[in-house]
């Protein structure tokens, strides 16, 4: 799906980026396979930050993107 151009992710995620998982305490990963799974993960954010594992480019190289969550 698309990134809201007025949201905090717009500066950190680009076209073709794929959110693979969220990262929790101790490096625990939760797979993100649907938009609903991402919404649930954001809603459960405890400290106002959600850490995303994002795959980019033709080789699928991953990086961590930390986003401030506003609710």
State the main characteristics.
71 residues; mainly beta; 1 helix; globular
Q: Can you summarize the main beta sheet?
A: 4 strands, antiparallel
Radius of gyration of CA atoms, rounded to a whole number: 12 Å
Structural class category: mainly beta
Number of beta strands:
4
Give the distance, in angstroms, between the N- and C-terminal Cα atoms.
20 Å
β-strand percent reads 35-45%
SSE succession: EEHEE
Number of helices: 1
- Share of helix among residues? 10-25%
Mean pLDDT: 88
Please provide a written account of the structure.
By secondary structure, this protein is mostly beta strands. It has one helix spanning 35-43; strands at 18-23, 29-31, 49-56, 61-68. The chain is globular and about 30 Å long. The two termini are 20 Å apart. The mean pLDDT is 88.
Task: Give a quick rundown of the structure.
This protein has 71 residues and is mostly beta strands. Helix content is 13%, strand content 35%.
């Amino acid at each position: 799906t698309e990134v809201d151009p007025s949201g905090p992710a717009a500066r950190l995620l680009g076209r073709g980026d794929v959110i693979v998982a969220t990262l929790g305490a101790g490096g625990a990963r939760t797979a993100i396979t649907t938009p609903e799974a991402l919404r649930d993960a954001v809603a459960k954010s405890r400290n106002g930050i959600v850490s995303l594992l994002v795959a980019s480019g033709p080789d699928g190289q991953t990086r961590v993107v930390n986003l401030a969550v506003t609710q």
